[in-house]
């Protein structure tokens, strides 16, 4: 039997390479050189000897099929093609290629013979068989390779050496050992010829400082993540109840951030300066009785809580509010802090900043929720790629298990909904029931709005009720009861609808509750700006509107607590003790989310009349979070029909932006431009409208001197000119539209890329099958040619034997 051929590479060395070691400083050149070695090795492998031919016959056998077969049954040529595919080099970074280049260089210089092909393991991957990665068993060779690698690492800078080590496909222990050797054996810096050597202490000190700063940054990042509000609580809620319930608490957290930003601006530019320069009180201060916490009146009236306490004077000079209501005269040559202008500008700027933040949050949430075009393969990704192996604590691992389990339930429920279509008769029946229920729900919302209007008119016409402080809570109580009872009625009517998708059920409930809230709030706004302004002539109607909004906010929180107590806790106790059921109530996402939007709308409506109302909303949101979290974990169960809330945050922010924020902005713009302020209180007491504060300030600036002459021009062309407002509005709408179009384009591109990846996979199978069939045809031709040659040689051999005989 013939000896198998040695598998040797012939790579000529240039004269410039003699006497110096290869350097991996230019990675691209090294990569190209090693690619050339791979190509030469493949050409040599195509011309190998008898052993390869024998393996080819064993691999191919008598198979004539051209279909795709497992890797273990492919021919050697097919295996060679598979080894050169890009998918077989996944994870092979340039550091690994450089280490292989070192191995080749050392072996070529030593002119040592390569191992025979028969020494390779049969089950080795083609990439390892062809590339010969770390297959030399000689310990001396391993040491030489390591010393050469250490020598090359020493010639690099610290950053380049760390980057190279990170890219090598080695274990952490080996990387750590190489880093220590390359750092301790480096000795001195390599300088220019003739320059003296410098001790490596500076380099080691620099390296230690970099490591210390890196560790400090990681520690600070971990600390910031640990200080994230409600981090563990949100993980627990998401793991036990799913993303649908978690979206409610994330939305509550977003509202808390909006109110904190709004309160910061109002306190910094309105409440803070007024507290620093308090106005003179004209009468005795009422005594607090404790009822003010519910009504907002009494001793709270003459505080910075409400509009009437703020003066119309300049705040950088000692000047109290005159009894005749006139303004203080500022000192000549100065630019005073004009309180009316500051009040109006701060409210406008705070609304503008809130609008920008809200639009950005909505666009960002839209991009995150609609970024992926399809969910094919998401089940496998969730099963095999969701676990975080860095989690070591028992509590964290339990939370992660719950989260993955709930995620799988949601994905499977969504997949089942797509697999069960409804018939035509069922669709028509569902449409009829849906239309009837919608008519009943719209009638309920209209009836609630009429009831609020009638009761508010009754409260205006009854002077006995107006004189009692406790009677001020009647209208907020009636409105709160309507807001509490009407959603339950809509929920009972919704039980008649055969919704297949729980997501659609939640969206429909949100729309119905939103119509109810908008009808009630629209009626109340008409009541405040039309009837109350006319009835309270000569009084501070702004304070009354601010107190009314405070009462609505407090009453909404009280009724929410009662609903949580009786609607969830008492029902759970009755269900478990009396009815002997283990079934707990589910968390009503639609009703709770609309309560948050309703409370936030009240806050935005009251910013002009009560600058500290966002502080009350912040306290309310904090209490609501802990109350709802405790009730959820103790009294509620996970949804019986899990569903994936991938777009819920975007829907919530959209409802918060357009119906809620836009309606509050229209209400305040009407109050600023059209309604006459009170003549006895507030910073606009001497003006016909609040908007005239800007014009008065401009007239003062025109006489202040040439240094501020540009400010009247800014006010005239940027504030009074409506073109600027329309331009800003158009820009915001353009940003929203462009963001939506960009996200849609990304979704289309993602779908096309996924389709292209699928087609490329099919192309690989097709090409491999074609190459395999071509090679088998050549093999058959070669066999037939060899057989013909043997048949021709056999008769001549017989004739020769006969002649010899």
Describe, in plain words, how this protein is organized in 3D.
This protein is 68% helix and 0% strand. It has a domain of 418 residues. It is extended and about 145 Å long. The two termini are 31 Å apart. The N terminus is likely disordered. The chain is an all-alpha fold. The protein has 25 helices and no strands. Helix 15 runs antiparallel to helix 17, helix 18 packs parallel to helix 20 and helix 19 packs antiparallel against helix 20.
Shape, principal axes of CA atoms:
extended
Beta fraction: under 5%
Please report the distance between the alpha carbons of the first and last residues: 31 Å
Assign the structural class, choosing from mainly alpha, mainly beta, alpha/beta, alpha+beta, or little secondary structure: mainly alpha
Mean pLDDT: 75
Got a strand count?
0
Radius of gyration: 40 Å
Unreliable stretches covering 5 or more consecutive residues: 1-31, 44-56, 58-69, 89-98, 108-136, 185-199, 318-327, 329-334
Oligomer: single chain
Summarize the topology.
Elements: H1 27-46, H2 50-60, H3 76-83, H4 94-110, H5 126-131, H6 139-154, H7 158-167, H8 172-184, H9 201-226, H10 231-276, H11 292-295, H12 339-369, H13 378-385, H14 394-419, H15 424-461, H16 463-466, H17 474-494, H18 502-535, H19 541-577, H20 589-605, H21 613-635, H22 648-673, H23 692-702, H24 710-719, H25 722-804
């Amino acid at each position: 039997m013939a000896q198998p051929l040695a598998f040797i590479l012939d790579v000529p060395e240039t004269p410039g390479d003699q006497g110096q070691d290869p350097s991996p400083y230019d990675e691209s050149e090294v990569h190209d050189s090693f690619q050339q070695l791979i190509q030469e090795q493949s050409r040599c492998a195509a011309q190998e000897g008898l052993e390869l031919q024998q393996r080819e016959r064993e691999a191919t056998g008598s198979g004539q099929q051209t279909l795709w077969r497992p890797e273990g049954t492919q021919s050697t040529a097919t295996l060679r093609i598979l080894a050169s595919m890009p998918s077989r080099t996944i994870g092979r970074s340039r550091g690994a290629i450089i280490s292989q280049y070192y191995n080749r260089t050392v072996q070529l210089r030593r002119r040592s013979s390569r191992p025979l092909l028969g020494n390779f393991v049969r089950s080795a991957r083609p990439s390892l068989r062809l590339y010969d990665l770390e297959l030399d068993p000689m310990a001396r060779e391993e040491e030489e390779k390591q010393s050469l690698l250490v020598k090359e690492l020493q010639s690099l800078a610290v950053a380049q050496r760390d980057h190279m080590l990170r890219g090598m496909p080695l274990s952490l222990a080996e990387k750590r050992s190489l880093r220590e050797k390359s750092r301790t054996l480096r000795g001195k810096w390599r300088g220019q010829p003739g320059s003296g050597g410098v001790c490596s202490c500076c380099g080691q000190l620099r390296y230690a400082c970099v490591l210390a700063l890196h560790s400090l940054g990681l520690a600070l990042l971990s600390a910031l993540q640990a200080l994230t509000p409600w981090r563990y609580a949100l993980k627990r809620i998401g793991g036990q109840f799913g993303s649908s319930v978690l979206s409610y608490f994330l939305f509550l957290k977003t509202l808390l951030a909006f109110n904190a930003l709004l309160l910061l601006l109002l306190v910094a530019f309105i409440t803070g300066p007024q507290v620093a320069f308090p106005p003179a009180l004209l009468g005795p201060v009422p005594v607090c009785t404790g009822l003010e916490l519910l009504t907002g009146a009494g001793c709270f009236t003459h505080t910075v809580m409400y509009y009437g306490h703020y003066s119309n004077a300049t705040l950088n000079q000692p000047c109290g509010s005159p009894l005749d209501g006139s303004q203080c005269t500022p000192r000549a040559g100065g630019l005073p802090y004009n309180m009316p202008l500051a009040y109006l500008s701060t409210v406008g700027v705070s609304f503008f900043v809130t609008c920008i933040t809200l639009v950005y949050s909505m666009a960002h949430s839209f991009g995150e929720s609609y970024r992926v075009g399809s969910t094919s393969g998401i089940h496998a990704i969730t099963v095999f790629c969701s676990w975080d192996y860095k989690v070591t604590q028992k509590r964290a691992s339990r939370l992660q298990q719950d989260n993955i389990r709930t995620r799988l339930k949601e994905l499977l429920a969504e997949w089942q909904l797509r697999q069960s279509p409804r018939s035509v008769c069922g669709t028509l029946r569902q449409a009829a029931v849906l239309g009837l229920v919608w008519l009943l729900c719209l009638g309920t919302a209209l009836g609630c709005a009429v009831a609020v209007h009638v009761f508010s008119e009754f409260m205006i016409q009854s002077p006995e009720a107006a004189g009692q402080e406790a009677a001020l809570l009647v209208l907020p109580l009636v409105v709160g009861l309507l807001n509490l009872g009407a959603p339950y009625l809509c929920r009972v009517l919704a039980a008649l609808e055969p919704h297949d998708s729980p997501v659609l059920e939640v969206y429909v409930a949100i729309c119905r509750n939103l119509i109810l809230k908008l009808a009630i709030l629209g009626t109340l706004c008409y009541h405040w700006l039309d009837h109350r302004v006319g009835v309270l002539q000569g009084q501070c109607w702004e304070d009354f509107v601010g107190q009314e909004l405070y009462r609505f906010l407090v009453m909404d929180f009280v009724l929410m607590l009662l609903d949580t107590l009786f609607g969830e806790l008492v029902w759970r106790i009755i269900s478990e003790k009396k009815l002997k059921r283990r079934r707990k109530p589910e968390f009503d996402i639609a009703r709770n989310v609309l309560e948050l939007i309703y409370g936030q709308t009240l806050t935005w409506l009251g910013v002009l009349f009560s600058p500290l109302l966002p502080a009350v909303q912040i306290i309310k949101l904090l209490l609501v979070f802990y109350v709802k979290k405790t009730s959820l974990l103790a009294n509620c169960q996970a949804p019986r029909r899990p569903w994936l809330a991938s777009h819920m945050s975007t829907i919530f922010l959209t409802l918060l932006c357009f119906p809620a924020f836009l309606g509050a902005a229209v209400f305040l713009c009407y109050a600023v431009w059209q309604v006459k302020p009170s003549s006895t209180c507030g910073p606009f007491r001497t003006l016909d409208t609040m908007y005239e504060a800007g014009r008065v300030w401009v007239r003062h600036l025109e006489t202040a001197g040439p240094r501020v002459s540009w400010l009247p021009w800014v006010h005239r062309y940027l504030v009074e000119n409506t073109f600027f407002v329309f331009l800003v509005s158009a820009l915001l709408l353009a940003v929203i539209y462009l963001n939506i179009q960009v996200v849609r384009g990304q979704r289309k591109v993602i779908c096309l890329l996924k389709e292209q990846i699928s087609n490329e996979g099919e192309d690989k199978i097709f090409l491999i099958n074609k190459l395999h069939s071509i090679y088998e045809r050549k093999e058959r031709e070669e066999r037939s040619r060899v057989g013909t040659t043997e048949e021709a040689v056999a008769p001549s051999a017989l004739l020769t034997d006969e002649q010899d005989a």
